[in-house]
Design a protein that fits this description.
Elements lengths: L2 E7 L10 H12 L2 H7 L2 E10 L4 E8 L2 H10 L7 E7 L2 H13 L2
Bound molecules: zinc ion.
Length: 107
């Protein structure tokens, strides 16, 4: 289960709360069959979508096969048309960090 964090941010001017064009983009995205579309980009599952409305930032956590396809998904769906997007490989604390620390530190 390869995990990625999709970190996004936008300006107040492009925020869907203030901008009709980006509002239409995000509502259209939300009303679409996101899971079905995501499958085409080998995004197996969305595990969380967290937003900070007034910081104009978000973090989506996805189980996906290829970060380049996540990038393509963000472009094709319009997410990247008004957000700066950073895609970061993630590990979990218990299943990723601790075994790695134990192995590297020989504990
Ligand atoms: Zn915003």
């Amino acid at each position: 289960m390869p995990l990625y964090g999709v970190y996004g941010s936008h300006t107040t001017e492009t925020c869907p709360l203030n901008n009709r064009k980006t509002a239409e983009t995000i509502v259209s995205f939300a009303d679409s069959d996101i899971a079905s579309i995501a499958q085409k980009y080998k995004i197996n599952q969305g595990l969380g979508q967290y937003h900070s409305a007034l910081e104009h930032t978000f973090l989506w956590i996805v189980d996906a096969e290829d970060p380049h396809l996540i990038e393509r998904f963000c472009i094709d769906t319009g997410i990247a048309s008004f957000n700066y997007v950073k895609i970061v490989p993630l590990i979990t604390f218990n299943e990723g960090v601790i075994p790695l620390v134990k192995k590297i530190q020989n504990l």
